[in-house]
Write a structure and sequence with these properties.
- The protein is of the alpha/beta class.
- Helix content is about 45%, strand content about 10%.
- It contains 20 helices and 12 strands.
- It has helices at about 1-10, 75-90, 140-150, 170-175, 190-200, 210-225, 245-260, 275-295, 305-310, 335-340, 350-360, 370-380, 380-395, 400-405, 425-445, 445-465, 475-490, 495-510, 520-550, 550-560; strands at about 100-110, 115-125, 130-135, 155-160, 165, 175-180, 205, 265-270, 295-300, 315-320, 325-330, 415.
- The strands form 3 sheets. The chain has a 6-stranded mixed beta sheet with strand order 6-8-9-3-10-11, with helices on both faces. The chain has a 4-stranded antiparallel beta sheet with strand order 2-1-4-5, with helices on both faces.
- A hairpin with a 4-residue loop joins β10 (about 315-320) and β11.
- The protein is elongated, with a radius of gyration of 30 Å.
- The termini are far apart.
Length: about 550
């Protein structure tokens, strides 16, 4: 119990009992855990531990003591009740395994014929693994990933189970996250704001306002530290027309946003595409850190990683095209031995993953795809089938149970979940969307120009065209003025359309991840855009009427229309 509690309190330090031989530390504990100072010293993992404990205890079953010794009765008496309560307050990590059986996909062509994209394949993946899905183009890598991630909208065959249960179509997005190939985010968003947005919408924080802010800030800061984004926390994400962070950093922001909810499963589609070898290694290393720290199952679709990157993966799923079939499913470290047993040893000094891809690419100089498919079906497939059948019968936590378990975190951290499709209520979604919309609108010079400068210029132009018309008799020019003015006011929101189209791109991704509801996005846009449109109309009308000389009563009528 001491070891477990110490691991929890020191989860972000180098102290990991009992792997480190010496552990001098004096952590400060929550007073509700009944003791304040605690020194633990462990000399060797295998021998009887040399424990030095100094405790001031407020437990009702033991008086305050200060004991020193090895496995002494005093030590046991002091910490018994405190450890029992600490056990009850420890975070319950909801882990997930993934089992897929006879998973296959056929595409319907234009002539109504069917083409097999992925032949039936099976496998089982445990929590805490970093899995690489590799293969040449057309081998079905993205198809397999999308089917496992419940992103495939076209019908497919086979079954996918999480912890032995069918995936819940409503709650699965609460325990799994998906990061696509492209990084779609507002250009005028800072890195900190992007991560804070996902953390807030994917976790429900209870307590005082200060506790909510601190819990969200701590999670955001941890993600920035792990992904190496702390130095650019206040820099714009940027885009094609806005200077911001680099492409590699933008990719890391997308991955960090996917992990903001502390999901039990992460699917990443080609997270290193378009990145330099160094940036790719940084991304994969950060993913491995999170996978091991939080026991998260991560499936990554990746193209030809270099030697240092491939060594970070625990499991390799290798596919060959025409149609997509499995040629290897197992440990990345054991792959060279397997290929050597198949009579295809990795050449000395060669990058193993490059060599594997050459072997499974039809038409290449080293093409051995058919031989490897046959070898897999005879050597590995029977064992995989037995494992899958066993895991199908083994039932673990369902989606709803995993979500419920996440609410058992320490109260001092402020985390709580609710078993619904969305992690936070509608009003929180609306507040975050309005806050984001206001920031990116007023930081964008084009938005400010569309809302203020352009209406003012149009007002001056129309005012000069109809200057002094209000002091003349009613006639055709007056009718023309009223008609043009009403048309211009009706089209006042048209310049906002490019921004709405741009927002639609990342709104589709965010709503598919159940960050917020579409209605919250629509209402948030109305709340922000409507006042801007009204203000633009007032600016334009005021300038025009100043030139025309019409009475104020007519001004109110036209603006009202």
């Amino acid at each position: 119990k001491i070891s477990k509690y110490f691991q929890f309190q020191s989860s972000h330090s180098s102290l990991l009992l009992p792997s480190n031989p010496i552990h001098p530390s004096t952590p400060t504990f929550d007073p509700s855990l009944k003791f304040y100072t605690y020194n633990f010293h462990h000399t060797t993992p295998m021998a009887t531990p040399d424990v030095t404990l100094e405790a001031k205890c407020t437990a009702t079953t033991a008086s305050p003591v200060s004991e020193k010794g090895s496995e002494s009765t005093g030590v046991t008496n002091v910490v018994t009740d405190a450890m029992a309560e600490a056990d009850a307050k420890q975070p319950t990590v909801a882990t997930a395994s993934l089992t897929f059986k006879d998973l296959a996909f056929e595409a319907v062509m234009n002539d109504k014929s069917k083409k097999t994209i992925l032949a039936p394949c099976s496998g089982h993946l445990e929590a805490g693994q970093l899995v690489a899905i590799m293969g040449p183009s057309g081998s079905g890598k993205s198809t397999l990933l999308d089917m496992l991630a419940m992103k495939k909208t076209a019908p497919y065959t086979g079954e996918v189970l999480m912890n032995g249960h069918p995936r819940d179509p409503v709650l699965f997005r609460r325990v799994a996250a998906y990061v696509g190939q492209d990084d779609h985010m507002p250009a005028h968003w800072t890195v900190r704001e992007a991560l804070n947005f996902n953390v807030t919408l994917k976790q429900r924080v209870v307590g005082s306002l200060w506790e909510k802010r601190e819990a969200t800030r701590a999670r955001t800061q941890h993600l920035m530290d792990v992904f190496g984004l702390a130095e650019v926390a206040n820099v714009y994400v940027g885009g094609s027309q806005v200077r911001g962070i680099s492409g590699g950093q933008r990719r890391r922001v997308s991955l960090a946003r996917g992990l903001a909810a502390e999901a039990s499963i992460l699917f990443a589609d080609e997270p290193t595409s378009g990145l330099s070898a160094t940036d790719a290694e940084v991304c994969v290393r950060a993913l491995r850190t999170i996978a091991k720290e939080q026991n998260v199952l991560m499936l990554v679709n990746i193209h030809q990683p270099r030697r240092e990157v491939s060594a970070l993966f625990d499991t390799l799923i290798l596919l060959t095209p025409n149609p997509g079939r499995l040629v290897y499913f197992g440990s990345m470290a054991d792959a060279p031995t397997y290929f050597e047993a198949c009579g295809l040893p990795v050449p000395q000094g060669a990058n193993a993953t490059d060599y594997y891809l050459d072997l499974v690419t039809p038409g290449s100089d080293l093409d051995a795809a058919e031989a490897l498919v046959t070898a897999y079906e005879t050597r590995t497939a029977p064992d995989v089938a037995r494992l899958v059948d066993e895991m199908v019968e083994r039932k673990g936590q369902s989606c709803s149970q995993m979500i419920q378990l996440s609410s058992d975190r320490p109260r001092c951290l402020g985390w709580q979940s609710r078993p619904k499709a969305y992690a936070v209520p509608f009003h929180v979604q609306l507040r975050m969307l309005i806050s984001r919309k206001v920031r990116i609108t007023f930081r964008n010079p084009e938005s400010v120009g569309i809302s203020i400068v352009m209406p003012a210029v149009m007002g001056v132009v129309l005012g000069l065209l109809f200057q002094g018309i209000g002091r003349t008799d009613f006639g055709v020019p007056t009718v023309m003025f009223v008609f043009i003015q009403l048309v211009m006011l009706s089209l006042q929101s048209l310049p906002l359309m490019p921004g709405l189209i741009e927002e639609r791109v990342y709104m589709k991704e965010e709503t598919s991840e159940k960050l917020y509801q579409e209605s919250a996005q629509i209402l948030g846009n109305l709340i922000v855009n409507m006042p801007l449109s009204v203000f633009s109309a007032l600016v334009q009308s005021s300038i025009i009427f100043a030139f025309t000389g019409f009475s104020a009563s007519l001004y109110l009528v036209i603006v009202g229309w």
